[in-house]
Amino acid sequence: VFVRVYKKIIVNNTFTPNSDGINDTWLITDLDTYPTSIVSIFNRAGQQVYRSIGYGRPWDGTFNGSALPAGTYYYVIDLKNKTPKRTGFIMLIR
């Protein structure tokens, strides 16, 4: 019998991409243990500003190379393991 134990991911709700070396990217602890996961982030208008498969690159608060304004963004995390998608809000502080 093979039992797979999934790690619980921890989603931070605030980050400050100001190049001070502290909280400069939006980190999701242990998401790297879900290599097929999909992370999507949307602005208030519903435009997707970030998408990652496998979470090889944490979000740095930019879209197409330009810094996004401070504000609240909506995220969807699909772990691809037959569990419900995780959703919530992130506060980007500049």
Describe it for me?
The structure is a single chain. With 94 residues, the chain is an all-beta fold. 0% of the residues lie in helices and 38% in strands. It has one domain (13-92): Immunoglobulin-like. The chain has strands at residues 10-11, 14-15, 28-29, 38-42, 48-53, 62-63, 66-67, 71-78, 86-92. It has a 5-stranded mixed β-sheet with strand order 2-9-8-4-5, with no helix packed on it. Strand 6 and strand 7 form a beta hairpin. It is globular.
Could you outline the blueprint of secondary structure elements for this entry?
Blueprint: E1 10-11, E2 14-15, E3 28-29, E4 38-42, E5 48-53, E6 62-63, E7 66-67, E8 71-78, E9 86-92
Parallel strand pairs: 2-9
Antiparallel strand pairs: 1-3, 4-5, 4-8, 6-7, 8-9
